[in-house]
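Need a sequence for this fold. Nothing fancy.
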């Protein structure tokens, strides 16, 4: 028996209402803030991610699905959504548009990691990017959009975690201070963190190993070593978040897992869950566009995992509207009646009325039992007399009342 590959899942019909619900909320909230949809390819040149996400990140080193195509090009299934959007921004000359350019996406992403609740090797992201302005008011807007999105979905008990990791001007000094602090704990660090200490010390703050987290709790804080520009940016951002009544908490351990971030980083987390259960996060990435061959362009964005959102919707028992289903079922008795049923079903569908119809040679009683199991409101019955008269029996499946009607009257009644 074939099964879905480990870390993937089938989204069955009974799950689809959750997905349509979240997608519709995402599209609606983005429209309110002026974000337009963009769709990028499922795979990109592998170098796009090693250059943007960072060669020494877990994503590039351990988690990307990379392969060579028949032409010898090295490609990767997209592990995240920001780099492809920025590549599209540069490739299509979007710097010539009114700035900031505001884009959102709902995309499938791929990471080879240990499957866990709400996180799969093939997963789905809702994300958005605001490219072309360094105003901290834009950071506040991006955070506000995330907050209002989760709120519109009906989720409660959330909090915003906020930090600033500085820029290329002040970060080197912070990294040197961080390395000096951690060098006194080399013997107690996990094997991954010993490597991070040499190659990517900022990732030390993101380690989930309990023994490393104890060391991290007393580590130097990036906000204490910010340059005047980054410090001013953070202060102004916090002022704007206060104006918007957004409940944020500063967290000096928050760095995010991608190398392109600068200054603002943030996450939205359930109050009881902690960092490993974050619903989504993002931040500013002012150097990424230039890394990809464009002009120096400030930008800020956010992304959330759809699976994790749905997991929390279920956990909080948020009521989800059902998807519309056909409320009309056509039953028949005899071959001539079957021909008329097929024509009637087609006619009603062309008029925008959703219809299900019986198949095969089952008895009328069995067909009506099927209609009842499908929970339709009405059954249309065509028998020998109805074929001759050109009419149809309209049966209310709730009250069992029925009457014979003409085709024109039938359409009016069903509408």
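Here you go.
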């Amino acid at each position: 028996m074939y099964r879905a590959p480990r870390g993937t899942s089938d989204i069955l019909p009974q799950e689809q209402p959750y997905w349509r619900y979240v997608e519709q909320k995402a599209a609606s909230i983005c429209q309110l803030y002026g974000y337009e949809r963009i769709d990028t390819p499922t795979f990109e040149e592998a170098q796009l991610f090693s250059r943007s996400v960072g060669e020494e990140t877990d994503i590039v080193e351990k988690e990307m699905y990379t392969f060579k195509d028949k032409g010898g090009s090295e490609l990767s299934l997209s592990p995240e959504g920001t780099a492809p959007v920025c590549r599209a921004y540069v490739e299509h000359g979007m710097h010539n548009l009114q700035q900031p350019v505001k884009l959102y996406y709902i995309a499938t992403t791929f990471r080879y990691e240990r499957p866990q609740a709400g996180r799969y090797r093939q997963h789905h992201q809702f994300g958005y990017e605001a490219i072309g302005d360094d105003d901290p008011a834009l950071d506040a807007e991006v955070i506000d959009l995330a907050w209002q999105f989760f709120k519109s979905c009906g989720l409660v008990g959330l909090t915003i975690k906020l930090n600033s990791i500085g820029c290329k001007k002040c970060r080197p000094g912070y990294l040197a201070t961080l390395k000096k602090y951690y060098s006194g704990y080399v013997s107690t660090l996990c094997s991954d963190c010993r490597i991070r200490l040499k190659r990517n010390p900022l990732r030390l703050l993101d380690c989930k190993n309990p023994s490393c987290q104890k060391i991290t709790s007393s580590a130097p804080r990036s906000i204490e070593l910010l340059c005047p520009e980054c410090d001013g940016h953070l202060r102004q951002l916090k002022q704007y978040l206060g104006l918007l009544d957004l409940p944020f908490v500063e967290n000096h351990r928050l760095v995010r897992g991608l190398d392109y971030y600068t200054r603002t980083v943030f996450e939205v987390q359930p109050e009881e869950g902690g960092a490993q259960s974050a619903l989504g996060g993002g931040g500013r990435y002012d150097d990424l566009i230039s890394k990809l061959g464009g002009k120096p362009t400030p930008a800020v964005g956010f992304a959330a995992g759809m699976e994790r959102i749905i997991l929390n919707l279920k956990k909080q028992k948020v009521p989800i509207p059902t998807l519309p289903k056909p409320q009309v079922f056509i039953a028949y008795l005899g071959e001539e009646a079957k021909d008329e049923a097929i024509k009637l079903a087609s006619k009603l569908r062309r008029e925008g009325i959703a219809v299900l119809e019986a198949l095969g040679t089952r008895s009328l009683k069995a067909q009506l039992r099927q209609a009842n199991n499908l929970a339709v409101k009405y059954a249309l019955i065509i028998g020998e007399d109805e074929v001759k008269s050109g009419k149809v029996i309209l049966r209310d499946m709730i009250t069992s009342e029925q009457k014979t009607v003409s085709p024109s009257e039938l359409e009016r009644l069903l509408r």
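For context: Residues 136-153 form the longest helix (18 residues).
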